Amino acid sequence: MIDLWAEKYRPTSVDDYVFSDNRQKQQVEDWIKQGTIGHLLFSGSSGIGKTTLAKILIKQLGVENYDVMHINASRDNGVDFIKERIEGFVQTIPFGKFKVVLLDEADYLSINAQAVLRGLMENYAESARFIMTCNYPHKIIPALHSRCQGFHFEKLDHIEYTARIATILVTENILFDLDILDSYVKVAYPDVRKCLNNVQMNSIQGELKLPNSHTASGDYRIEMVELLKKKQLREARELLCSKARPEYMEDLFRFFYDNLDLFSSTTQGQDEAIIIIRRACVSHTSCGDAEINLSACMTELMGINT
């Protein structure tokens, strides 16, 4: 059976985990030393390590498996589920010091479900702890924010992120070209999990290769990055406009913003690119046609250095 690299190389201890803020590392170490935690709210972008750190905490605090409930709130997010499953779990006596409810993607919980959760946090504070993870903390009601210690996960340094992926490739005896790896990094950053899945899928016969966007293993954005690097701007725009889906427009604008160097190597050019991207994002939000907005944005970005 082939191991998924994202799971195989998931950190299992605080020492293995890469923190972007040393103060957060010190806080986690203090919790482990004290042997307890309060209710926690971990926020940050996908694949940045929120759930991984939660699992490390649970393990290093010595919480019994029987005392842990792990829920993906993107699937189970209604009032009935909270009352029937979670309340039933926390109201029983723990085997150890306390129970832990790990609620992944808590920003998918309905407002009413969050209100019920607030009550559970209060009523069972002596015997249960809640760890919630979310991408969008503004979707969590203020009453939950006030009952949790907030932890926001910043992006890893770009160089450190690349080095982490490269180290795994070396460990797996995969040959790779740094420029090709850079294209994978640009597309997935800061999502470590996504980058690992992409490079594993396209590591063929011991070598990391560029995907074909016309096959199942292809991510068209990787091919688009390669075209932009070669200054084949028209081809990059045509590929993007033919492949992009309206529901992913915001992610694409964020991708542009995170990779300004693809459009200009100068500070002035990158500042101009930021203005173009922001204008396109506002236009998209206010209901314009997604494909037209995207094409116009790419056309303007292409014209920065011409």
What would a concise description of this structure say?
This protein has 306 residues and is α/β, with parallel strands linked by helices. 51% of the residues lie in helices and 10% in strands.
Summarize the topology:
Blueprint: H1 5-8, H2 22-34, E1 40-43, H3 50-60, E2 68-72, H4 79-90, E3 99-104, H5 111-123, E4 128-134, H6 142-145, E5 149-152, H7 158-171, H8 178-188, H9 192-201, E6 203-204, E7 207-208, H10 220-229, H11 233-243, H12 249-258, H13 267-285, H14 290-302
Parallel strand pairs: 1-4, 1-5, 2-3, 3-4
Antiparallel strand pairs: 6-7
Helix pairs in contact: 4-5, 8-9, 8-10, 10-11, 11-14, 12-13, 13-14
Walkthrough of the structure:
The chain is an alpha/beta fold and about 300 residues long. It has a domain at about 20-150: P-loop containing nucleotide triphosphate hydrolases (Rossmann fold, 3-Layer(aba) Sandwich). The protein contains 14 helices and seven strands. The strands form two sheets. The chain has a five-stranded parallel beta sheet, sandwiched between helices. It has a two-stranded antiparallel ribbon with strand order 6-7. The model has no long low-confidence stretch (mean pLDDT about 90).
Bulk shape: globular
How far apart are the first and last residues' alpha carbons, in Å?
51 Å
- N-to-C series of helices and strands: HHEHEHEHEHEHHHEEHHHHH
Q: What count of helical segments does DSSP give?
A: 14
CATH class of the domain at 19-152: Alpha Beta
Mean pLDDT: 89
Strand order of the largest sheet: 2-3-4-1-5
Oligomer: single chain
Number of strands: 7
Low-pLDDT segments: none
